[in-house]
Design goal:
- The structure holds 3 protein chains of 3 kinds.
- In chain A, helix 1 runs antiparallel to helix 2 and helix 2 runs antiparallel to helix 3.
- By secondary structure, chain A is an all-alpha fold.
- Chain A starts with a helix and ends in a 10-residue tail after the last helix.
- The model of chain A has no long low-confidence stretch (mean pLDDT 86).
- Chain A is built from 7 helices and no strands.
- Chain B is mainly α.
- In chain C, 72% of the residues lie in helices and 3% in strands.
- A two-stranded antiparallel sheet of chain C has the order 1-2.
- Chain C starts with 7 loop residues before the first helix and ends with a helix.
- Classes of the chains: A mainly alpha, B mainly alpha, C mainly alpha.
- At the A-B interface, helix 1, helix 2, helix 3, helix 4 and helix 6 of A face helix 1, helix 2 and helix 3 of B.
């Protein structure tokens, strides 16, 4: 049973990813990515990491991708022309390098085939909000606070970078 | 079912992300492919965490998620700023730092 | 002597302190340069105090004392080769130290008066102290490398002091000439050091002298010949003597100190120091003697034709150095060192006396200028002088005493040392290559005659007769009223040196003189003193022969003086010179032209070398060396030109780079 669900979600994820990189329209790419993220969230559920699955959907899918879509529509970009319509060196080299990376990674995985343990029985308890929250706010308190500052800085930075010039020049 | 299928999936997603970064011309799409790569790493981490029964893997994923969010915000702000100056987000056209 | 040897570094370093004091303060402060008494006083003390220390060491040392060494610090340590800054105290080095510091202190004192009008007063005394420092390093060194340091140092100071009035091109050329000719000798010396190191493994004198058996006779000859070439450079022998007459361009105290008493004796010191080594090869000894004898006679013939008083003294110095080399070549190291000592006394006295005369003639020139008469004459030319004994009595008397000493009249100093040299040369005529040595002895005897002759020509021409300047220049009429004796600071030194010229010989009374009356005798103080440090040849002549030789040399000297009187008394200087040149005809011309040696060197060596440099070496320098440097720069530019294409400014090419890097890293991780 698990296997089938896995195959379903995996195919969906990969298809969405391929769709994302081959789509001509930018908005379509973003939507494909959302689909990919949701599939991966499903796989997280398979791995009994409940909290993370939900967080993935909420934060990644709900916040980050929405931000992406806002920007895409704000910039009102035209479609990328001639995508995959003619052969170019760029596509070939990129594809080739990607294949090399994939083969190296698969080779590394192949060397540990059969030795990896199954899902740990404790996982049901570990994947819950309580466990993660417990670890976060005791052992990892400092990183949490630092992350808070990081996010604040990111917000302020984004504001500054993207604002219009206050005096003088009108935007084009 | 074997656990290394999860790892294999993660590898495939990572590769697709790499190909996307190297191939596309649109800056925002390139950025999204980078997000895809980050996501695939998250998947690897969670799968190992599940195998070892260790919560720390998931904590790491949590933080990676936060950082990805911050990075997305700032990155998009930069792209907007670039768009303002060049009226395009085509990376092949933005080459002022050329020799 | 081990307990006292720790004084030796003080002896060496005090002159260095004097140099630094005068040099640094003079450089930095204009008001310091005005304090001539302070500068002169400090400089003189910086030489006099070492003299007192050396004197004390002399009283503590006996002729039986062993040599002692002290090391300041390790100078070079490279593989198996180590050298220290170390000093060796033995009878020979102490003798040289006494001469250098003693005569040096006197000359410093004299120079306070002589150089008083000069602007570069402080620089002069700084350089003089530096010279004394280098010379002391030379004589007190316990290894050849430190000696070589001193050797080069005195060459440097000689250059600085000869060219002291450097704004005159001729004078600075003379300084350059001195340095370059010395350099040729130094090169030979350096090669000799390399060879010695290769055979003995060390450059310390103890090791060299202990290891003389390690050399084959051929090696001894070769190394000895190289050292000899070095010595001919420093001590102005054939073939490298031509710089010494030119060196008279420097101030007179410099000529007295460096080119009469000290630096020029360093070659003789080195050979004496290595006497056991030199004695191993009779051919080498013969070479030394031949060079010495020929130099002596050639220089004497040239001196006969000179009118410049300093030039006569310069050639006289070369000739007397030739005598010393002749002594070295005959195995008479004690005699050579004896002559070094006595020569220092009377030659310094002669030079300083000539300085006094030049001083007076300069004064006449200034006074005539003040009167409004713009006359120009050479203040060193004998023909402008004459009759100076009336006006410069002290100078005259001391000059006369020193001249009698150099002529070799007993009981003054020069007689004893010169006679000993002649006796030992004749003695060498009894050994290997005997016939050659007898011939050299005959040459030396003729040279002794000529020495007396031309020195009295000098004295009589300068001090006797009438003052000739008014006859030469009409405007100088009545100029003799401006002639006056030099101040006490100068004449006192002259009297001290004259006194030493009188009594200095008694340290080396030949034994046979006393032994004739008392059976056996051992009165030769100097010979006893140096017994441990030099390896002399044996004296095998009978007492009768020695007395004959003694009378012979006195007779020869007396003849010389009488001849000189007959020819040069009164105002016959130029007339007699004309008669001599008629008599000897072409020979006199050769002497007058200085055997054209300078011209031969100029044409045969200097000009081709300069041309070669210009055509070949300069081209190599410009094309080769500059070309190589430019090539390196061009390579860098090329590499940069290639590398800049990596900066495309495109994000994706950078991304390519990153991915390539990742592939490589994973590859290494997987397959390491």
């Amino acid at each position: 049973m698990e296997t089938y669900i896995f195959i379903l979600f995996a195919t969906l994820a990969v298809a969405a990813a391929v769709g994302m990189i081959t789509s001509r329209d930018t908005v379509n790419s973003a939507l494909f990515l959302v689909l990919n993220l949701i599939s991966v969230a499903g796989i997280f559920l398979l791995l009994k990491a409940q909290f993370l699955a939900v967080v993935q959907v909420l934060v990644y899918g709900g916040a980050i991708m929405v931000l992406f879509l806002f920007v895409i529509m704000l910039l009102n970009l035209s479609d990328e022309e001639q995508m995959l319509s003619k052969f170019s060196v760029r596509y070939a080299v990129g594809f080739f390098l990607g294949v090399i990376v994939l083969s190296q990674l698969l080779y590394a995985i192949a060397s540990v085939t059969g030795t990896l343990p199954q899902i740990h029985p404790e996982m049901e308890r570990i994947g819950t909000v309580e466990t993660i929250g417990d670890a976060l706010f005791t052992v990892y308190m400092l990183p949490v606070l630092v992350t808070a500052i990081l996010l604040t800085a990111a917000v302020v930075g984004a504001l500054l970078l993207a604002q219009r010039n206050i005096r003088g020049k009108v935007d084009k | 079912m074997e656990m290394d299928w999860y790892l294999g999936l993660s590898a495939v997603l990572f590769t697709i992300g790499v190909i996307g970064v190297l191939t596309r011309k649109n800056a925002i799409v390139i950025f999204m492919c980078a997000e895809l790569m980050l996501n695939s790493v998250n998947l690897t981490l969670v799968s190992f965490s599940a195998q070892l029964g260790d919560v720390h893997g998931q904590i790491l994923v949590f933080f990676a998620l936060c950082v990805a969010a911050a990075e997305a915000a700032v990155g998009l702000a930069i792209i907007i700023a670039i768009y303002r100056n060049n009226l395009t987000v085509d990376v092949t056209k933005i080459n002022l730092l050329r020799w | 002597m081990d307990a006292y040897v720790h004084l030796v570094p003080w002896i060496v370093l005090i002159p260095l302190a004097g140099f630094l004091f005068n040099g640094l303060l003079g450089l930095s402060s204009g008001s310091f340069r005005e304090q001539k008494n302070l500068i002169g006083g400090v400089a003189t003390l910086a030489v006099f105090i070492p003299f007192l220390l050396a004197l004390w060491l002399f009283f503590m040392m006996s002729s039986e004392s062993e040599a002692a060494t002290v090391s300041l610090f390790t100078w070079i340590e490279a593989g198996s080769f180590t050298t220290d800054i170390g000093y060796r105290l033995d009878q020979l080095s102490l003798l040289m130290t006494l001469v250098v510091t003693g005569v040096g202190a006197l000359i410093h004192f004299y120079a306070i008066g002589y150089m008083s009008g000069d602007e570069g007063f402080w620089k002069f005394f700084a350089f003089m102290n530096l010279f004394i420092f280098a010379m002391l390093n030379l004589v007190l060194a316990d290894n050849m490398l430190l000696l070589f340091l001193g050797w080069e140092g005195v060459g440097l100071c000689s250059y600085l002091l000869i060219g002291f009035w450097y704004s005159d091109m001729a004078k600075s050329d003379a300084a350059k000439k001195a340095f370059l000719y010395n350099r040729v000798g130094d090169f030979a010396f350096l090669i000799a050091m390399f060879m010695i190191f290769q055979i003995v493994g060390s450059l310390r004198f103890e090791d060299i002298l202990a290891g003389t058996t390690l050399f084959t006779t051929d090696q001894v000859f070769l190394i000895g010949a190289l050292i000899l070439i070095g010595a001919t450079g420093k001590s102005a022998q054939i073939p490298l003597f031509v710089w010494l007459p030119d060196a008279m361009a420097g101030p007179t105290p410099v000529s007295a100190l460096i080119h009469a008493a000290t630096m020029v004796t360093s070659g003789i010191y080195v050979i004496s120091r290595l006497s056991p080594f030199f004695m191993q090869s009779p051919e080498l000894m013969l070479l030394v003697a031949v060079i010495g004898a020929f130099t002596a006679i050639i220089a004497a013939t040239i001196a006969l034709t000179r009118y410049d008083i300093k030039a006569v003294l310069a050639y006289s110095t070369v000739s007397q150095l030739g005598f010393m080399f002749l002594a070295l070549g005959s195995g008479a190291y004690v005699a050579a060192m004896f002559h070094v000592v006595t020569h220092a006394f009377f030659k310094a006295c002669l030079f300083l006396g000539s300085g006094s005369v030049i001083h007076a003639m300069h004064h006449v020139e200034h006074k005539l200028h003040d009167e409004g008469k713009h006359v120009h004459f050479d203040p060193q030319d004998m023909r402008n002088m004459g009759g100076l004994r009336k006006y410069l009595p002290d100078t005259y008397k001391t000059f006369l005493i020193a001249t009698i000493a150099i002529a070799g009249i007993p009981p003054l100093a020069g007689f004893f040392s010169k006679d000993e040299i002649l006796v030992m040369t004749f003695n060498a005529g009894m050994g290997t290559y005997g016939a050659v040595y007898i011939g050299l002895w005959a040459m030396a005897l003729i040279t002794a005659f000529m020495t007396a002759f031309y020195m009295f020509r000098l004295t009589l021409g300068t001090f006797h007769g009438e003052f000739r300047l008014p006859q030469k220049l009409a405007e100088a009429k009545g100029a003799e009223k401006y002639l006056h004796e030099s101040p006490f600071t100068m004449t006192s030194v002259l009297w001290v040196l004259a006194g030493l010229s009188i009594v200095g010989g008694f340290i080396g009374i030949p034994n046979f003189v006393v032994a004739t009356f008392t059976g056996t005798a051992d009165v030769n103080l100097l010979s006893n003193w140096l017994d441990k440090t030099t390896m002399d040849a044996e004296l095998t002549l009978s007492k009768l022969v020695e007395w004959f030789l003694l009378f012979g040399s006195v007779l020869v000297a007396a003849f010389g003086i009488i001849f000189a009187y007959r020819l040069f008394e009164g105002d016959q200087l130029e007339a007699s010179d004309a008669r001599i040149s008629e008599r000897f005809g072409a020979l006199y011309q050769v002497w007058n032209e200085k055997y054209k040696i300078d011209e031969i060197y100029e044409g045969g060596i200097v000009r081709p070398t300069v041309r070669f440099s210009d055509r070949v070496l300069a081209v190599f320098d410009m094309k080769g060396i500059d070309g190589f440097v430019n090539f390196v720069a061009a390579m860098v530019r090329f590499a940069g030109g290639v590398a800049r294409y990596f900066q495309t400014g495109l994000i994706q090419s950078y991304a390519y780079g990153i991915v390539l890097g990742v592939i490589l890293v994973i590859f290494m991780l997987l397959f390491r």
